[in-house]
Amino acid sequence: MLGDADLDPAPLAGRTVAIIGFGNQGRAQALNLRDSGIGVRLGLRAGSPRADQARSEGLDICTPVDAARGADIVALLAPDEHLPAIYAEIEDALKPGAAVDFAHGLSIHYGLIAPRRDLDVIMVAPKGPGAALRSLYVEGRGMVALAAVAQDATGAAWPLALAFAQALGSGRPGAGVLRSTFEQETVSDLFNEAAVVWGAVPALLEAGFETLVEAGIEPQLAYLECVSELKLLADLVEARGIAGMREAISNTAEFGASLGGPQLVDDGVRARMKAVLADLRSDAFARSLSAEAAADYPRLRAQRKTAATSALEAARKSLL
User: Fold this and answer.
1) Rounded to an integer, what distance in angstroms lies between the CA atom of residue 155 and that of residue 316?
2) Contact at 8 Å (CB) between 224 and 320?
3) Is residue 104 flagged as an active site residue?
4) Mean pLDDT for the chain?
5) Is 296 annotated as a binding residue?
6) What does the pLDDT read at residue 283?
7) Residue 295, SS3 per DSSP
8) N or C: which terminus of the chain carries fewer CB neighbours within 10 A?
């Protein structure tokens, strides 16, 4: 893990960064770079609902093509499924030897974008949401980030990627920059999202809630037990690790966990996790994501509607 003492800001000095997108990562990275003294201009499509907010925060706005034209680094920070079309739009505006930066490796790893051979292709991937990246920076702290290079046309792509990560605040104490690859970042990130934190954990919370309610436990109590305590677990694991978390809970809780955990997470679960990982190593996920976007997200819309009207959500609202 690299810290500020290991990172050289010089490769980014005097360079202009074009940020395309002002969502989860776009806003945070644009503001962090600007506050680190880097020249930033923001590329937004005409009529973007984010434009007024960006102007209120003092950022220069232009179209994606105008932002990319003449920029030294162009950071594509819009949603993954939109990046191929955005790259196609701005490609002719990219100057020879410019760098194209990503916050996630999906578009490059799965071949959805094939950058010109004269361009550096780098990735700086903060390991958390943009809101946290920004708030940590403002507090004088930082967020761990992965850095990777997929194409080193100039011979200077690695120093540039590391300087970019430092300007985001990722080299600060308590954080750090880890060298990686587009493949490793993409596969591990998608696996976490599909099979662990964002996929399995919410499904497990819902299943636990439903099991208690079906057994006659009041929904509010079921919610408190199965959902609300997750933050306590997350805080303990963050502060102490999994081993330290187990030392911090009661003997009753630890003993119950030692019995229930292995019954639920057995070899069958691990086999299904390996199947998810195999799908992600192929291009099946990328093709499904593209098809979902082309159809205007029917799966995601249905899932959001179901979640918003669930008994679990009703229990949550009743506790507010």
Assistant:
1) 54
2) no
3) yes
4) 95
5) no
6) 82
7) coil
8) C
Q: In which domain, by residue range, is 275 found?
A: 192-318
Same domain, 174 and 227: no
Cα(5)–Cα(26) distance, integer angstroms: 26
34, 117: one domain: yes
**209 pLDDT above the threshold of 90:** yes
Catalytic residue among 104, 109, 134, 172: 104
Tokens of 288: 């499904």
Q: Quick check: is 151 in a domain?
A: yes
Residue (of 160, 143, 140, 131) closest to 11 by Cα position: 160
Write down the pTM of the prediction.
0.88
Q: Is 254 marked as binding a ligand?
A: no
> Could you give the angle at which helices 284-294 and 298-308 cross, rounded to 10 degrees?
80
Q: Which of 135, 158, 180 is the last residue of a domain?
A: 180
- Residue 173 and residue 54 share a domain: yes
What 3-state DSSP class applies to 160? helix
Beta-carbon neighbour count of residue 209 at 10 Å?
23
Residue 152, annotated as binding a ligand: no
Query: What's the rounded Cα separation, in Å, for the pair 86 and 184?
Result: 24
Q: Indicate if 164 and 45 belong to the same structural domain.
A: yes
CA angle centred on 173, ends 169 and 177, rounded to 5°: 55
Give the number of residues written for the chain.
320
Q: Does 189 count as an annotated binding residue?
A: yes
Give CA–CA dist 147/101, Å, rounded. Answer: 10
Instruction: Tally the domains of the chain.
Output: 2
